[in-house]
Amino acid sequence: MAKIAVIGASAMGSALCRPLIDTGWDVSLWGTEFDDAVLDTYAAGKPHPATKAPLAPHVKTFRSRQLEAAIRGSEVLAICVASVGLPAITKRLAPYFDRVRAVWLTTKGFVETSEGQILLLAEAMSKIAAAEGATLPPVLSIGGPVIARQCALSEPTATVFACDDLGAAVHYARAVRTDYYRAFPTDDVAGIEVLAPLKNVYAIALGVTEGVQEATGAPQSNLRAAVFAQALREMSLVCEAMGGRKETAIGLAGVGDLEVTGVSGRNKFFGMRLGRGEHPRDAEAQMRAAGHTVEGVPTTPLALKLVEQRVPDLLEQLPLLQAVAAAVAGEVDIRTVLVNAALPAYPAEEQIKAYAGTWSREWKPTGSHLPWRISRIFRRFHRK
After folding, report:
1. Which one of the listed residues 3, 60, 199, 246 is annotated catalytic?
2. Which residues define the annotated binding site?
3. Of 187, 202, 227, which residue constitutes the final position of a domain?
4. Based on the domain organization, do 306 and 234 belong to the same domain?
5. Tens digits of per-residue pLDDT, 306-315?
6. Torsion over CA of 348, 352, 353 and 357, rounded to 10 degrees?
7. Which residues are annotated as a binding site for substrate?
8. One domain, residues 197 and 164
9. What's the pLDDT at 1?
């Protein structure tokens, strides 16, 4: 029986224990200093305070001071912490990387270095490990449409395991496969690591449409559909520009994850608050008070900065990203800019000029034209 140490008793970390137990893994769940309340709840035989789902049976729990005991004999470390805590956790785990065969990563987000450089998570982990004199084993980035509570309750769940070594992705996708939990293996790590955090940004925009609908009583289905389409377009553009694949963006890790997060994720509910007119700081504070971390809030400015640093020419094609970033920063009321960001813009002059040569003389957008009725008379005369 293979052993796995799940690092972080988060909603996702706890949920992952269910398919692992059901596929015969020996599971240790280690909680950080911030997880004491969750472990206390489990010790009392109660469900997770956020998901209200029970911990899978036979999972061994360990407190923050018991890291060595939790990891001992493990084949895999599954890191399930918030992106803001990933650098510290990576440093803490560095002495153990040479003991395990692989690292799994359910964390979603970006990391900003002290120099202001924005890194994908696997990039950041590799740099941190090297600075600690350690070498990372193969890292599997896990993404896709997974609501933690449903996974923890054994509801049908599809996810994606991405690794530069496709063999590792295939191996572990098989090793955790159940009737209800299936992982699709891929080697498109860049695609997964870009799309997983981006969908949180765009889920905020989807939530805004529902908040506006609640506040005004006017249906916003058309606007929501336009937001969804624009969000997927922008996610695809960034994914490909960062070295990912288009098919990843239109699969589970892109459109699938955006759909589920836009329906019932925490970022969607944060967006609903903005759509009802709440200030972003107040909205986030209230959600934190209720025990809900909104990953899209810190991720949004980092996503914008990532684009500015690596693919700045793409920025003008990402109006929705820019709108959400300005709203999260408190610079604009997103209700005043969402429509222009989501609905199609008039074609840019460069686009018109690029395709003008393929248009008939009647519709050619450049140059002067006679009124169409007069031009029709001339055409008839010319045909005679």
Report:
1. 199
2. 108, 148, 266-267
3. 187
4. yes
5. 999 999 999 9
6. 170
7. 108, 266-267
8. no
9. 75
